[in-house]
DNA sequence: GTGGAAACGGAAGACCTGCTCCACTTAGCT
DNA sequence: AGCTAAGTGGAGCAGGTCTTCCGTTTCCAC
């Protein structure tokens, strides 16, 4: 979660960075991970620089475009999602695998705004992060097919549906609304299963009359 | 949808506006409805003024705070949602009423970013729009109880759950993704019903390999 | 028609944000 | 140690948005 590719930055022919530059690069990546998770992918570079303890100029020199930073960061985060999907697909109980993946995915996206945005961009086929989708889609598709062949998942849904469902639920609520998200994952899963006689019990949520800060986050306005 | 309270603006003791002022006020409200629907509640006042064909100063004089404008606008929009919920609750077939309300609500929120934000704020208990929730919550609760008493809706969900579900699905996709939203409303409804033997058929969506612009919209960063 | 209060509009100032640039510092080689 | 190229940081500029302010226009009561 915090290891960083040491030097070779895509182009293996590039001369290695100086030691201090490499150290700062790592600091910037760590800071960006933190800031992007909290504020989303268009957080100010100033903030990233402040958290990293370097000047803005340094951030811009190392990552001239925002995409460069995002790309460097989320390669590994996407890997984590792919790994989790494969793990879920390997579960001997296919339904349990699917359930686990949905819960985990919703929580991961809720905890990290940047991740949510990257996955959305990957789904949308954005050039630079498209490689993310190319790895992600097969993994989720495999999970879906696995559950469908076992006859527990309805046959008319695709991996894309699962991705969108995770994204939808992941947008619900603030940081401490984990219970609420579990509730909606359970609800969606009751819609995803092939058939059922009774509803799956939902996690109870105690919301006070004036403590309904649990709604879906507002959309952002386009630039 | 386009009628506007002529003069009495909250305070009945206020002297009536001059005729031109009243005309401009109506123009501003119409423009704001359009602009807020497209761009969300924090669209620039400049844009509202431009669309209304008045100067920015006029907008600021009539509505010194953004909240004043939002409040004046969405009183009636919330009324429309309440009316739709009551209509749905009055349906002799309670399940059909619920299905119709979810489809309508998701589409309404997708078509109007401003409405989505206001409903979110209302759910969150925001002071000025709190009155909206006070009217909305009972209407949706009645719809839910109606369906539950008829034994078609699972008993462990509340009106709030319905509101959040509508909001979640309403965030999916862009303007022409109505089909996709229908798909997820159907899926959620299959999770909401008391029991079912087979999945409800989902509306088919044809998405090309690189036309996956169907993901949930990104979250916005806080000010 | 006239006087004066109300309303108008948009230029201008305050502010905020993304990015560049260059005088200075530092690592690493000899 | 001394030299040089690589690296640094933050002041400052450009471009954008929000809000105010005041000279001009419009309405309406008389």
From TrEMBL, chains A, B:
Superkingdom as given in the UniProt entry: Bacteria
One Pfam family this sequence matches: TetR_C_43
InterPro entries linked to this entry: Homeodomain-like_sf, HTH-type_TetR-like_transc_reg, HTH_TetR, Tet_transcr_reg_TetR-rel_C_sf, TetR_SbtR-like_C
GO terms, molecular function: DNA-binding transcription factor activity; transcription cis-regulatory region binding
DNA-binding region range list: 44-63
Keywords per UniProt: DNA-binding, Transcription, Transcription regulation
Domain HTH tetR-type: 22-81
PANTHER family: HTH-TYPE TRANSCRIPTIONAL REGULATOR BETI, HTH-TYPE TRANSCRIPTIONAL REGULATOR RUTR
Protein name: Transcriptional regulator, TetR family
Provenance organism: Klenkia taihuensis
């Amino acid at each position: 979660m915090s290891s960083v590719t040491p030097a070779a930055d895509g182009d293996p022919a590039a001369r290695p960075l100086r030691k201090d530059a490499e150290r700062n690069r790592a600091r910037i990546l760590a800071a960006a991970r933190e800031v992007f998770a909290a504020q989303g992918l268009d957080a100010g570079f100033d903030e990233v620089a402040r958290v990293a303890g370097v000047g803005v100029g340094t951030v811009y020199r190392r990552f001239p475009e925002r995409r460069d930073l995002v790309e460097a960061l989320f390669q590994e985060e996407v890997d984590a999602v792919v790994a989790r999907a494969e793990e879920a697909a390997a579960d001997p109980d296919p339904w349990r695998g699917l359930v686990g993946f949905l819960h985990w995915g919703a929580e991961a996206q809720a905890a990290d705004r940047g991740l949510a945005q990257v996955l959305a961009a990957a789904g949308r086929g954005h050039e630079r992060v498209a490689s993310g989708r190319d790895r992600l889609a097969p993994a989720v598709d495999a999970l879906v097919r696995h559950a469908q062949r076992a006859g527990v998942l309805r046959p008319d849904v695709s991996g894309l549906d699962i991705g969108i469902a995770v994204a939808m639920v992941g947008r619900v609520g603030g940081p401490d609304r984990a219970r609420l998200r579990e509730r909606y994952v359970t609800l969606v899963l009751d819609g995803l299963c092939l058939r059922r006689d009774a509803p799956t019990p939902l996690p109870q949520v105690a919301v006070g009359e004036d403590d309904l800060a649990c709604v879906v986050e507002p959309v952002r306005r386009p630039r």
